[in-house]
Amino acid sequence: MKRYAPHICDLYLDTPLYNDYLKVAMALNFGIPVLTIRGDTMTTRLTTSMLFSAGVENELAAPNSEKYVEAAVYYYTWPRRLRQLRDKLAQHKRDRDVPLFNAQVHYITLSHAFHRAYEKYSKGRKRKFYVEIQGHEEYNTNKRHVKIRYEKAT
Hints:
Blueprint (H helix, E strand, L loop, with lengths): L4 H4 L3 E2 L7 H9 L4 E4 L4 H13 L2 H4 E2 L2 H13 L1 H17 L7 H20 L4 E7 L12 E7 L2
Parallel strand pairs: 1-2, 2-3
Antiparallel strand pairs: 4-5
Helix pairs in contact: 2-3
């Protein structure tokens, strides 16, 4: 399927009510750009997160349905721009310079964040914590760009 997928589909449209993050992950892995709408459901957040981790969130995560349709029409009428997105995804995958395509570095970074959070928890700081891995522009395999934001537990 991997060999034929890029020839079958130019752009994967992730529909707002019936999105499937597993198919989105497959499409991105095959080098197919995925257009989605940012949202509050788990699947829309996962999809947007994958686009962010692939380095193409700005181009492919629309803020609302009007921009989603606008972007779909734009990419349909400008196949050259769509080809550039495909090339960008392929380059990121080849270079492994974004978290989505470099699982080992992503694992190490996330593991480090959980260890730091546990250390703080074990020292008596019983708070809720959120792990935020910073954007791909700053992503570097030699450094761990991780922030942990704490809030008081209720």
